[in-house]
Amino acid sequence: MAAVDYQQQPGVKLSELWVDKRSRGVIIQIIALILLLLFIGFIVNNTINNLKLLGVETGYGFLNEPSNYDINQRPIEYSSRSSHGRAALVGILNTAIVAGAGIVLATILGFVAGVLRLSGNWLISRLVYVWVELTRNVPLLLQILLWHGIIVHSLPRPQEALSPADGFFLSNRGFSVPSPQFEPGFWAVVIALGVAVAGAIWFAGYAKRVQEQTGKHYPVFTINLALVVGLPLIVFMAMGVPLTLDWPELRGFNFRGGVTVRPEFMALWLALSFYTAAFISENVRAGIQAVSHGQTEASYALGLRPNWTMRLVILPQALRVIIPPLISQYLNLTKNSSLAIAVGYMDIVATIGGISLNQTGRALECMSIVLGLYLAFSLFISTVMNWYNKRVALVER
Amino acid sequence: MKVSRLFLGVAAASLVASAAYADTLSDVQAKGFLQCGVSTGVAGFAFTDDAGNWQGFDPAVCQAVAAAIFGDASKTKYTPTTGKTRFEALKSGEIDMLARNTTWTYSRDVDLKLSFTGINYYDGQGFMVPKGLGVSSAKELDGASVCIQTGTTTELNLADFFRTNNMSYEPVPIETNAEARQNYQAGRCDVYTTDASGLAATRATFENPADHVILPEIISKEPLGPLVRHGDDNWADLVRWTLNVLIIAEELGVTQDNVMEMAKGTDNPEINRMLGAEGSYGDMLGLPADWAVHAIKAGGNYGEIFARFIGTETDIGLERGLNELWTKGGLIYAPPFR
């Protein structure tokens, strides 16, 4: 073996480094790295020089100047007097909102569709199959525009808004719902919720220990549900209902008060969720099919009920297969949310990478901010999901 | 040298580094055509005709410049630009000049290092609403949803207008004029705001233009004109004086039809200087003596271009108004040709 020969030789000549397969590989990689760094350095240097030649000033000072434009969806206080930096923050939050909501809905839809795809019912599994193929083979941008078109064109104008329940209005300006207004006493409810969650976690651990030692089984889920819902509710009542609702109301052109979920958000959210769910459902199907059928039969033989079999035997093993590709889907969804600009949803790309860029002309600075932010988003999601993946991964003993 | 609109462009384009900016005219002559930035389409101002060629009030300026250089207006190529991409396209050298409803502002002129070469349309930002809403003044728009093209000065004017009048509104940002029209017609927004000329152009494309009103308030000054990048004054002069020639031609009664006749010599010394019958004014720009003849021959004088594409005889139906010659009470004015 070459490796053994190599170690047996007392002195290594420089020329032999190239002859040896391993050291040659390292040398080639080092050279490639140096060339890459030189190339990047050349581009950066060239860009800076060119900008200087053009007399274009660079710098991030503009972030403190007033933005002078308005944004419709504002999770935080913002007006046209706020700074470009603040506008970027609004954009970040808007991206986080649509990505977060998208991940939740896509996961639910994806898991449901993945399980239905394996259903014994021919009609259901075929229908899901058709849906998956249709959704994942049509470009996402078209789907976003389609959803936006459906919402804007098919829903009535605010004056003739549909009202499924008192205070809820659906029109082509969005879905208006009452918004909660918290009064000072509400902090007690939040604390109660925290206490309840901590208690629930402790109880789950305790119940598991008891079951392992004695075999006695507690209805953990029911008790914890009662704890998490009940305790805050009791405190809520005890504090004299420290919450009022702000009801939406049609005044003039639009609904005022309450919270309005805009058509742009809905279109983007639904399109992203459905598109990603189609991919996730295939991951889920693959994960479940990867678990040998013998496992199911074995657990039935042990007397486990079907839903216990799913929860305790199949799913833990399937998750090991599902989660790694699921991480990629979450990352894709987050990055795809940059298509928001197509329908005018004010995300990072539309605020700092769009209007701010345009009004200040600071293209490189704005794009570098956008790049950095997407990188941060993606790394954050990767970190969280990799941590979760480690937890469910096979523990080798 | 290119600093392109996206980071990838920067990477790729930086490699093609050369400082050969100084002489745009030579570059244009060497490649044999003029690359002109236009909008993605505004009825009357820039549109593609049945044959797929760009036509309109803005491309006409480019055609006049191309005609001045090559004696042939068809030696123009077009790059459609959005409100977002237009300045990077110009700064990077992708286009030689920009003729695209662009408002002359301090920061664009000074900070973005662009040179405006004149004003070919005096505009102002207005509002269009469906008649059915019963709105007669922009001051009644409190709480309305407003469709607006992003990346334009209109966005800033709008924010200022509603803030100073203590009114609220919901901005509905939109990328192109076509999308804005769709959203407005679907009722996603109550109001569409852009330059009054653009509103008139958009309204002309509706099935029932009479169902929509343009409100009387004009909330901003929007002087629109062609522009070039900083750093080549000769090129800026050429574009500026091509536009001036079109204006002077209208003032002196030189038209597309009679320009060849007049080029042979007239009693008016300014016409003679301009059309090359007297002096050597073309040389000063580095162009043949009859450059202005070709520029006028291409699409006619300023008034003829206005009338053909956006005047009262067209679907757009814009009055001359501020864009009448200074001798007739408007603002269109060119320095003397001498």
Provide a descriptive summary of the structure in words.
- The complex is a heterodimer of chains A (397) and B (338).
- By secondary structure, chain A is an alpha+beta fold.
- Chain A has 13 helices and eight strands.
- Among the domains of chain A are: 18-56; 84-149 and 262-392, MetI-like (MetI-like fold).
- Helix content of chain A is 68%, strand content 7%.
- In chain A, strands 1-2-3-8 form a four-stranded antiparallel beta sheet. A two-stranded antiparallel ribbon of chain A has the order 4-5.
- In chain A, a hairpin with a 2-residue loop joins strand 6 (249-251) and strand 7 (254-256).
- In chain A, helix 4 (84-117) crosses helix 9 (263-290) and helix 5 packs across helix 9 (263-290).
- The longest helix of chain A has 34 residues, at 21-54.
- Chain B is an alpha/beta fold and 338 residues long.
- Chain B has two domains: 7-122 and 224-328, D-Maltodextrin-Binding Protein, domain 2 (3-Layer(aba) Sandwich), CATH 3.40.190.10; 125-220, Periplasmic binding protein-like II (D-Maltodextrin-Binding Protein, domain 2), CATH 3.40.190.
- Chain B is 37% helix and 16% strand.
- Chain B contains 14 helices and 14 strands.
- In chain B, the strands form five sheets. In chain B, strands 10-9-11-8-12 form a five-stranded mixed beta sheet. A three-stranded parallel beta sheet of chain B has the order 4-1-5.
- In chain B, a hairpin with a 5-residue loop joins strand 2 and strand 3.
- The radius of gyration of chain B is 21 Å and the shape is globular.
- The interface between A and B is large, with 48 and 51 residues.
